[in-house]
Amino acid sequence: MTRAVDPPRLGPEIDASPRRAARDRCSAVELRLEAARRRGCTVTDLDPETGFLHELRRDGRARVLMGALSPLNDAAASRLAGDKFHTATTLATIGLRVPEGVRCLRPGRFVDFEAHTGHAPALDLAARRGFPLVVKPNAGSRGRGVQRVEDAAALRAAIDEIWADDYLALVQVPAPGMDLRVDLLDGRCIFAYARRPLELAGDGRRTLEQLLQAADPRLTPAWCAAMLPHEPQWQRLVEREGVGLPWVPPAGHVVRFDGIILNLNRLCTFEIVEPLPGPWLEVGQRIGRRMALRHLGIDFKVPSLAADPSEAVIIEVNASPSLSNMALAGNYERVVGIEEQIVESILADAPAS
User: Fold this and answer.
1) Cβ(266)–Cβ(11) below 8 Å
2) What is the layout of strands, in order, in the sheet containing 42-45?
3) Of 343, 351, 327, which is closest to residue 43 (Cα–Cα)?
4) CA distance 324 to 29
5) DSSP state, 266?
6) Could you write out the DSSP letters of every residue in 32-51?
């Protein structure tokens, strides 16, 4: 069984620690505020104790921002996107591919829906499709609470853990392929990237810690010390090869942190896709229209960028996409430029005050 009860974050924990986010120039909050200042806005911190509530004001227009939530999407559309099961149902009705899976409701939450309550739906799926399976909360982001399970006991345990915080656990058949993320603003692609497993090529001289830090500027010594022990892919490496950060991989030896879950808040890297091929932009626009979202991020599993988008599986849709990890990885100015576009759209919709 491979599990990640509390996966590490490479980026700042904006929602869990707003004070930290307010201090971190690469947090989603600070990136947007910096963009607002560059666009000539007066930025007022309305809640200095947390640094999580701000007013943007310019040319007689004002808008209050709560954290990094995108105010370009209405509440109903954002809530729909935040529900993974209902998002998948919505997209499937227009012929788009979504993960095969079931929902397991926490017993005692509802008096109806008995067929979807308890472990039974997941165990039936396992009997039909076998293992491994992916278990995840119906709400949430950044890979939190997502687990890969290999047997029925692990399946039950993973669902129980999700029920501690969420009344609905999703159990899905893994979708094969590479990970493609596409962020859109009013139908335009503002950023796209492919997530890749992190690979470290040994040279016989540098330690694993040095190789990690050379491969990704986000993997600072402090991060490695605090977060690697909780990272499932790292745990597998330690158990399999009996090594640690001081180990020096021999020349030609490749250490690959591959897994069923690739998330930039965990051990993976990325490759910017530019320009995004037209067919992928078109399917992204179609998803945006169906979900009634102006600002969104879409996670695809795809055979390759050369494949027909009809072969892609839409893993989820994010109604407040963040580019914090891109800024941390050396793309700060580019990300602030994208945030400036978002700020201009926010101000265009802001009421006069």
Assistant:
1) no
2) 42-45, 53-58, 61-66
3) 343
4) 9
5) S
6) HHHHHHHTT-EEEES-TTTT
Distance CA 65, CA 41 (A): 13
Tokens of 185: 């603003």
CA dihedral (291, 297, 298, 299) in degrees, to 10, reads: -140
Report DSSP state, residue 320: S
Q: Judge residue 314's burial from the number of C-beta atoms within 10 Å of its C-beta, 0-12 exposed, 13-18 middle, 19 or more buried.
A: buried
Closest by CA position to 69, among listed 78, 81, 58, 80:
78
Instruction: Please enumerate in sequence order all residues whose Cβ is within 8 A of that of 307, keeping only pairs 6 or more positions apart, or say none.
Output: none
Tokens for 269?
């890297």
Closest among 29, 171, 51, 99 to 317, alpha carbons compared: 99
The whole-number average pLDDT for the span 179-202 is 94
pTM, entire model: 0.87
- Please tell me the distance from the alpha carbon of residue 317 to that of residue 108, in angstroms, as a whole number: 29
CA–CA gap between residue 48 and residue 23 (Å, rounded): 12
Domains, the chain, with CATH or none: 18-67+326-349 (no CATH), 69-99+175-321 (3.30.470.20), 100-174 (3.30.1490.20)
pLDDT-derived band at 228 (thresholds 50, 70, 90) equals: confident
Alpha-carbon dihedral sign for residues 218, 219, 225, 228: positive
Q: What is the mean pLDDT of the chain?
A: 88
Q: What is the DSSP letter of 250?
A: P
Per the listing, tokens 């911190």 go with 45
